[in-house]
Amino acid sequence: MPFTGASHIRIARPSRDLARAEQFWVQGLDLAVLHRMTSEPGPHDLLMVGHPDAPWHLELVHDRRHPEEPRPTEEDLLVIYLDGPVPDELVSRLVAHGGRRVSSPNPYWNEWGVTIEDPDGYRLVLSTRGWTNS
């Protein structure tokens, strides 16, 4: 089957602490745990989060024997287009669950959204804009 706009996308990232990451993404953003794997006695633990009906999910991996240190930059963004105001309650919940509200070096995101760093330093932008292909 060829790649199409309906093809599922997995965004994979290392995590220092899957329990803290789960707090942020599940309790904070309200994503669902789609899959969890603890590979005892093996080294790799895995957490997949997302919405069950979305064509994407976030995979977070932790290798207990050789932990990979996350190396996000200020431009490593996961942008969610809300097409409306960012609820203050959502921002507060993300911060209460391990996130940190930050300013973006790109003024576009400061004007059109709220940027929150997850516990591993990756940035989530909640955009007030809607998505268009133009």
TrEMBL record:
Taxonomic superkingdom: Bacteria
PROSITE patterns reported for this sequence: VOC (PS51819)
Signal sequence interval, chain numbering: none
CDD domains, sorted: VOC (cd06587)
Domain spans labelled VOC: 5-129
Entry protein name: VOC family protein
Annotated organism of origin: Streptomyces ramulosus
